[in-house]
């Protein structure tokens, strides 16, 4: 299923060329041509009773900076963002009637890797000039997937006010669609 999400920008929504360019080898998190502060991308696929959601965002949107953490305050911001990302139910507003239970969470970012390091070396100086991304992948098992008609990103916009817009690509029983969401229009239907 994860491969379906990764292929979604290529195969299903060819009109979203920037999203297709953004899908990349995860070893190069910070070399994206479509990197835009305030903007993020979200792919959601509902296949049977499985819902997969993948969020890709510049770190600036989620923690307020993109450099390796250089202070205790930076480390606290990264830890807080990670804590919020580890609680996707509060971010995605899935309807309770769908009975979706979180089955898997995967968070990736050079900032999370640096979270555990207390030293600041020359490599970190090089990293400061680069763009850091945060990728979050979630898999939910839904007891009543037919009740999952939409989800609401209001919680995500509140948790991460640096995120101004999200380009969402959705695939579900009714087909696929793309929609741009923001704090004033946070709801997307499958």
TrEMBL record:
Keywords: Signal. Residues 1-19 form the signal peptide. This is DUF2796 domain-containing protein. It comes from Stutzerimonas xanthomarina.
């Amino acid at each position: 299923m994860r491969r379906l999400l990764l292929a979604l920008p290529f195969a299903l929504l060819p009109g979203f060329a920037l999203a297709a360019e953004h899908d990349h080898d995860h070893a190069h998190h910070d070399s994206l041509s479509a990197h835009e502060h305030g903007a993020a991308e979200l792919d959601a696929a509902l296949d049977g009773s499985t819902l997969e959601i993948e969020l890709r965002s510049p770190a600036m949107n989620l923690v307020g900076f993109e450099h390796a953490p250089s202070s205790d305050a930076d480390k606290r911001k990264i830890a807080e963002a990670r804590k919020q990302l580890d609680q996707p139910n509060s971010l995605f507003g899935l309807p309770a009637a769908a009975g979706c239970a979180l089955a898997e969470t995967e968070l990736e970012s050079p900032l999370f890797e640096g979270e555990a390091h207390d030293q600041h070396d020359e490599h970190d100086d090089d990293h400061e000039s680069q763009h850091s991304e945060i990728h979050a992948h979630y898999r939910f098992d839904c007891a009543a997937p037919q009740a999952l008609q939409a989800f609401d990103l209001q919680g995500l916009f509140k948790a991460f006010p640096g995120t101004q817009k999200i380009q969402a690509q959705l695939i579900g029983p009714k087909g696929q669609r793309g929609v741009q969401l923001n704090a004033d229009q946070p709801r997307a239907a499958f």
